[in-house]
Each structure stands twice: as structure tokens, then as C-alpha cells.
Amino acid sequence: MTLNLTANLTLNLRDADVLRHHQKWSGAFLACERFSQYRFCWLRDSSFMAYSLDLADLRTHSRAFHLWVAQTLAPLKEHFETLLQRKNAGEQIPYTDMLPTRFGENGEWEQDGWPNFQLDGYGQWLWALSEHLRLSGETDLPEVYRDSVQMVVSYLQHFWEMGCSDCWEEFHDHVHTATLASIYGGLNSISRFPSVAVNPEVPAQIKARILTEHVKNGRLVKSNHLDGVDASLLWVSTPFKVLDENDPIMQATVQEIENTLVRDGGVIRYDGDSYYGAGAWLLLTDWLGWYFAEAGDPEKAQKFFQWSENQRTREGHLPEQVAVSSTDPAKLQEWNDLWGSSANPLLWSHAMHAVLLNRLKI
Ligand code: BGC
Predict the structure, then answer these.
(1) Among 47, 67, 131, 216, which residue's CB has the most CB atoms within a 10 Å radius?
(2) Is any ligand 1 atom within 6 A of the Cβ of residue 350?
């Protein structure tokens, strides 16, 4: 399949434009302003938005986001220190007391019962910040980030083994493979900066844990309690590099993802998903493309890119998910009745589409 060069350069600019036009003056990105439940800035979604803006050379925007995170986290230091004391005293800390995964656009921590304890976003932020600084030619962590980064490093080092909600905000007490990979990627990448103190034993322990407890029958599993695959397992190689894209475990995992999660050309999150009847997610389809681009199969990567491109609305927007032939219509209706139709534009979809386009180098 060939893609038209001019058309795709335009698309790349368009996706980056959607992101920067939606960025708040504070530096935050709200996941989807038109969707009532997504008017928050998730560390996870936004870290990949910042990365895609870095790849599009829109560094002022990614920098504004990273500075916003540093400023938002700084006042949580005292809370974090209390968490450490409680942990050291042997207390079973309730999930609601752990640091949140999403914030209001001015850094507010809304304590509204959302399953906020999700460690992956903190690892992803460290990774995206490292990439931002690397692409900006920085050789050490600028002073302005130091306190918040060191707090996040310490938070992840102390709590990485604890069960938490996954990147889909579900299965609240499992240990999730993609979450471990995100923490590994964050700690590993931020450790390249001399002023950041990362205990090298922790990433090594995380990798060992993944290989011993999260691999079954030669492939990765969703969590310590679920043996199926989840599309987020792609993160283990791309981009967090716990394993290389061509490692046999990764290849077997991707084979299983292709066999069981690709529906009508797009990728669903996992078998048994019920959110909006389990549509195919654009960002995951692009992620599978990103995996193949890194694994040296640009043809396959382009095929997944094209599928997502085909879902673009007339306004030029990319939604979170689209219904496919396996989508459960009753469940879809239930969610439509509850929250309205699924999020559109989802900024994270635009981010992953722009990342893949950049990797395709067309
Ligand atoms: C997804 C999360 C995402 C959030 C905001 C949720 O439905 O499961 O992964 O961070 O939406 O986009």
C-alpha cells in the first residue's frame, strides 16, 4: 500500500494542530472536552500528546505541558511523604489516598470517587519528559523539574509492586503488565540524567517480575490474574523497551493480539471488554502500527495507519473508538444512554496517529 506524501504531511500537521489548539493556557490537555467524563488532564494521555508534539517540533507546547505537571505535582510532596511514612509503618493504604492519575486543568485533584490510583501515567510522564529533554538537547534535568521528578521516582520505586487500576481504569487490585512496563520505561529513561537518583535495582526487578510472572506459554499476559492478552501489552516493547520488538516473547504476544483483538482492521482493548460494547480503538490500532514500524515491517504499519485514517470525521477529528462487527449493540446502547456517544475528538487518538505517521517517515 502506498500513501500520498503531500496528503500525509498535511495530516501530520492537522493532528498536531488539533492538540495544540486544545491545550489549555495552563499547559494541561483535557482528554476530550466534548465528553462529560473526560474533562480532565490524564498523565497517561497527555504524556503521549507531549511526545507527539515533540516529534512534530512543537516543543513550546510539550514544554508547557511538562512544566504544568511539575508545578501540579510539587504541592503533593507533603502528601507523598505521609504515604511513605504510612507504608513504612506497615499500614494498608486505601487506594483513594494514593496520588491521582488525572487532574483539573489548573492542577486540581478532584476527589470524586474516580478509580484514580493508576501508576502507569507516572512512569509514562517520566518517559515523555526524558524524550522531551533528549530531543531538546538537554544533558541533565533542568532545576525546575527536579523536586517533582525525584518525588515521582521515589513514589514508583516504593509502590510499583502494589495492585492498582490499569490503564483502562479497571481491575483495581491486579498488577498489570503494561503498568509495570510503563514504570520500567519511566525509571530507566529518566536515569540517564546525572542529577536524578534512580536505584538501578528497581528497573531490573521489574523486568525480572515481568519475565517470571507475566509470561505464560511463551507470551505476555494482561495481569498477574488474567492470562489473556490486552492491546496495551504492546507497550512492553514500544516504547518502553522492557523487551525488543523482535524478542520472541514480544512476537508471540503480538501474534496473539493480531489473532484475537484485530476486528475489521481495527484493534479492540481486550476480549471481554464491555465499554461502549468493545469498539476498535484508533490509538491502539496506531500503536500496533507503531510496533510494526519499529519491528521493521512498514507495510503492516501503514495498513493500521490507514485504518485509523479512514475513521477521521468530516471535521478532521479522530474519535476514541468506533463500533465494529463484534461490538455488542446492547452494551453500546447502555453507554450511549449513560454518557452520550463515545469521546470525539479524543486527543490521545490524535497523538498516536501523529506518532505513527512520524515513525513511518513518509
Ligand atoms: C480510558 C483511559 C483514558 C481515559 C481518558 C478512559 O476511558 O480507559 O485509558 O486515560 O479514558 O482518555
Answers:
(1) 47
(2) no
pLDDT tens for 21-73 read 999 999 999 999 999 999 999 999 999 999 999 999 999 999 999 999 999 99
In whole angstroms, what is the distance from residue 173 CA to residue 162 CA? 8
Q: Which fold has domain 5-360?
A: Glycosyltransferase (1.50.10)
In angstroms, what is the span from residue 168 Cα to ligand 1's centroid?
6
Q: How far is CA 182 from the centre of its chain?
A: 8
CA distance 350 to 9: 14
Question: Judging by DSSP bridges, how do beta strands 215-216 and 102-103 pair with one another?
Answer: unpaired
The C-alpha cell that represents 179 in the structure block: 503498568
- Euclidean distance between CA atoms 165 and 173, whole angstroms: 6
Nearest-angstrom CA–CA distance, 121 and 334 = 28
CA dihedral 98, 101, 104, 110 (to 10 degrees): -40
Closest CA to 258 of 218, 217, 208, 300: 300
> In the numeric block, which cell numbers belong to residue 241?
523497551
Contact 3, 305 (CB under 8 A): yes
- Which atom of ligand 1 lies nearest, measured to the CA of 269? 8
Query: In 3D, which of 284, 279, 288, 285 has the Cα closest to residue 324?
Result: 279
| Residue 325 in grid coordinates | 462487527
Nearest CA to ligand 1 atom 7: 168
Task: State the closest ligand 1 atom to the C-alpha of 320, by its place in the atom list counted from 1.
Answer: 12
What would the DSSP string read from start to end of 69-100? HHHHHGGGHHHHHHHHHHHHTT----GGGSPP
Question: In angstroms, rounded to a whole number, what is the distance separating the alpha carbons of residues 303 and 312?
Answer: 15
Domain coordinates in residue numbering, the chain: 5-360
pLDDT at 8: 53
117 CB under 6 A from ligand 1?
A: no
pTM for this prediction? 0.96
Averaged pLDDT, 294-299: 97
Q: What is the DSSP letter of 230?
A: B
Cβ-based neighbour number of residue 102 at 10 Å: 23
In angstroms, what is the span from residue 42 Cα to ligand 1's centroid?
8
User: How many other β-carbons are positioned within 10 Å of the β-carbon of residue 244?
Assistant: 15
CA dist 280 and 295 (Å) reads 22
